[in-house]
Design goal:
Blueprint: E1 3-4, E2 9-13, E3 24-29, E4 33-36, H1 44-51, E5 58-60, H2 66-69, H3 72-78, E6 83-87, H4 91-95, H5 98-108, H6 112-115, E7 126-129, E8 134-138, E9 141-147, E10 156-160, E11 165-169, E12 174-176, E13 179-181, H7 191-203, E14 208-211, E15 215-217, H8 220-242, H9 247-255, H10 265-286
Parallel strand pairs: 4-5, 5-6, 6-7, 11-14
Antiparallel strand pairs: 1-2, 2-3, 3-4, 8-9, 9-10, 10-11, 12-13, 14-15
This protein binds zinc ion.
Residues 63, 65, 68, 151-152, 170, 185 line the site of zinc ion (ZN).
């Protein structure tokens, strides 16, 4: 069963990497239904099972990375009335995911099969979003779209006003139990944009955060303040290390920290990607 977070919001664990509590999609319902993110292509059947008889009217994508949008084409086929809402800069990747699939294979290494292959979504089913749009689901549930570059240039968050609930995708990082890590994966993480996004999201004064990785955060203001500090420290730590070490030595050094030693191997590989995303950013910054 999905996890009910309120009378209008349910979390669906997408079992990303075959593990619980790694990836989440969210089902919001007023009179109409919205799904936020789809998980990887491997999650399509699970999403359909968890939605049951509630065919979504909208499939909103925080961004077009395969762990968030991987099942979009399959769910569009399963739910022929559903509109897919995606950032204007993500549309071309959604309808022609060749570059995304190649980029994922290049950057995720042994995890590539677990991310799966995205299939092309039909252009005529897409609602092009730029931020500022509002979708009224009925029963007082209104979803506002927020343009939040940083993790990716085509990243969106979705704010549900009546609950003051922010569905933040990867804009506010990854939380796995006690461990928090900035979501700074290649190819287009941008630190300056991410920090501006954090500030912008704080101004919405959300009460609840719904992280794609993973779950509900209740003290949103404290979490956002801490994430700002965490991201700054993470980037500066990697910047310091790379002044003396080769890139893969930096990755090894970060992963050797005691707090990361007990992570499962799949999550250590994902963490390594987050380090490489900062290294890529620092390379671009230097140009
Ligand atoms: Zn992502």
């Amino acid at each position: 069963m999905p996890v009910s977070l309120s009378s209008s919001i349910e979390m669906i664990d997408t079992l990303q990497f075959g593990l619980p509590c790694i990836g989440a999609a969210y089902h919001i319902h007023g009179k109409r239904h919205a799904l936020i993110d789809t998980g990887t292509s491997h999650a399509a059947t699970r999403i359909r099972e968890r939605l049951g008889s509630h065919a979504p009217d909208f499939i909103f994508l925080t961004h077009v990375h395969p762990d968030h949008a991987g099942a979009s084409a399959m769910l569009a086929e399963a739910y022929p009335e559903a509109v897919i809402g995606v950032h204007e800069r993500g549309v071309r990747h959604l309808v022609d995911p060749v570059r995304i699939n190649a980029s994922v294979r290049a950057s995720t290494g042994p995890l590539a099969d677990l991310y799966g292959e995205m299939l092309p979504a039909p252009l005529e089913r897409i609602a092009v979003l730029t931020g500022g749009e509002c979708f009224d689901l009925g029963k007082g549930i209104v979803i506002e779209v927020i343009d939040v570059p940083g993790h990716a240039p085509h990243h969106l968050c979705f704010f549900e006003r009546s609950h003051r609930a922010l569905f933040c995708g990867n804009a506010l990082g990854i939380q796995r139990g006690e461990i928090r890590v900035p979501a700074t994966v290649p190819p287009s993480f941008d630190s300056e944009q991410s920090l501006a996004t954090i500030k912008r999201l704080a101004e919405y004064q959300p009460e609840y955060l719904y992280l794609s990785h993973f779950g509900e955060v209740r003290d949103a203001a404290t979490y956002i303040d801490q994430y700002d500090l965490l991201l700054r420290a993470w980037v500066e730590r990697i910047r310091d290390l790379r002044s003396n070490l080769a890139d893969e030595e930096v990755v090894h050094k970060i992963l050797s920290a005691p707090r990361f030693c007990r992570l499962k191997e799949k999550l250590r590989l994902e963490l390594a990607m987050c380090v490489r995303g900062v290294l890529d950013y620092l390379d671009r910054e230097a140009c």
